[in-house]
Amino acid sequence: MRPVLVCALAIGLLATGVPSHSEVRLLGIGTLNGSKAGPGMDLSGQTFTLENGQAANLLGGIGSGLDYAGKGVFLALPDRGPNAMPYNPAISDTTSYVSRFHTLNIRLSPQKTQGELPLRVTPELVGTTLLYSSAPLAYSPGAGSVGRGEPNSNRTDRFYFSGRADNFSAAPQARRDKDARFDPEAIRLSKDGRSVFISDEYGPYLRQFDRASGRLIKTFALPENLAASTLSAVADVEIQANRRGRVANKGMEGLALTPDGKVLVGAMQAALEQDLAIPATKKLIRLNVIDIASGRVHQFGYLLTDGSGVSEILAINSHEFLVLERDGRGLGEDPPAVTKKLYRIDLARAVDITHLSGEASLAAVVDKSQVLDIVEALVANGTPIEAVPAKMEGLSFGPDITLNKRKLHTLFVSNDNDFVSDKSGQNRLYVFGYDRLK
Questions:
Q1: What pLDDT score does 2 carry?
Q2: Under a CB-based contact definition with an 8 Å cutoff, are residues 222 and 265 in contact?
Q3: What are phi and psi of 294, to 5 degrees?
């Protein structure tokens, strides 16, 4: 069974828009390009300029993570900020853009034009929440042409997380939880709705924040085999200096929360350095199952089929999950998209591989079956192959709806446009409908 959704929306639509049994079908596409603050702006109130000349309240990348909060409300997550345009390679073109999440109201209504997709999807940005710690964080002091990494909105009791690649200290790995650099990639709302869990690519880190204020509540301790031993603000240098841990910019990309709210599952985007070094495990993704109350972590193996990495994971129930696997091709990259697929997996009989390496870690990888080919679905419904986004990264169940007196569940997929709408496309939300998953 899938998670229970708290909202049902009755919509009378054409029969041609209703998925057949066990079919996952595209129902609508929405875009979000601004807020009441203005076109291309979020609601953070950060009305100053970043180091690269971009606005600190630039609205972009909102599809890195997505989660449903009920009653048409979604939480949307941008990553580390506008760093797609070169300006300073010494810090990987990153800025002190403050980490944040957005609150959206998404309205689904009938599409009245014959031949269009059944649903009109209308997202509205209603809030932006900045992420901070009430205790001091480690920021870069700056050097040469690079200024300090501390966000200028910091206060004596509020220290913001930011996207600056050099905002880390020389502290041993065990004390890196104080690093200010944060590259958010996935978000899940707690069972009680009062906090959010956010995973990132830098640590990787897994942190819990108060939903209303954005204040840090907790940083989870993750297995040491995930972390890079040597850090650098320059991605290529960081890659060359490490023989274990996550590769640069491919940390904990996906995050799921089981329906009972007790267990998180964090998915690495790509194989760890130590797994990449062995031909047999170059496609091995480690799924980290975290008991929230105790902090205990178990790792299970997932093998990529034809994508280059995992973008997201979503809980169906306590042991079954949807995994979004993709390549790096599509709008914003070149050539056109090929692989953006959803797979269903079951961890019920999975074997812990935390302390295994090499071929031994392949002994019991999880079973998987394909649920949806997103590229195929978009192209079949009129999206040119050249316009399919490269970075399909957000995945969430949504409200139940009724089409022609038939109840359907909804599944939302979002893209990360890297804050560059003219090259990587608009912030889009793709809504799929189904009556049950295969």
A1: 39
A2: no
A3: -95, -25
What would the pLDDT profile of 351-395 be if each residue is shown by its tens digit? Answer: 999 988 888 899 789 999 999 999 999 999 999 999 999 999 999
pLDDT in tens, 55-102: 999 999 999 999 999 999 999 999 999 998 899 999 999 999 999 999
CA 82 – CA 86 distance, rounded (Å): 10
Say whether pTM exceeds 0.85.
Answer: yes
Find how far residue 239's CA is from the centre of its chain: 22
Tell me if 427 is assigned to some domain. Answer: yes
Which residue bears the tokens 């700056």?
142
* 3-class SS string, the chain: CCCCCCCEEEECCCHHHCCCCCCCEEEEEEEECEECCEECECCCCCCCECCCCCECCECCCCECEEEEEECCEEEEECCCCCCCCCCCHHHCCCCCCECEEEEEEEEEEECCCCCCCCEEEEEEEEEEEECEECCCCECCCCECCECCCCCCCCECCEEECECCCCCCCCCCHHHHHHECECCEEEEEECCCCCEEEEEECCCCCEEEEECCCCEEEEECCCCHHHCCCCCCCCHHHHHHHCCCCCCCCCCEEEEEECCCCCEEEEEECCCCHHHHCCHHHCCEEEEEEEECCCCCEEEEEEECCCCCEEEEEEECCCCEEEEEEECCCCECCCCCCCCEEEEEEECCCCCCCCCCCHHHHHCCCCCEEEEEEHHHHHHHCCCCHHHCECCEEEEEECCEEEECCEEEEEEEEEECCCCCHHHHCCEEEEEEEECCCC
Tell me which DSSP letter residue 162 carries: B
Position 1 in a domain:
no
Dihedral sign for Cα atoms in the order 256, 99, 106, 340: negative
The Cβ-side half-sphere exposure at 182, using a 13 Å CA radius, reads 33
Residue 2 lies in a domain: no
Q: Is residue 35 part of a domain?
A: yes
Take residue 432 and report the two structure tokens written for it: 């799929």
Residue range of the domain that includes 24: 8-434
Specify the number of domains making up the chain: 1
> For residue range 161-199, what is the model confidence (pLDDT) as tens digits?
999 999 999 877 666 889 999 999 999 999 999 999 999
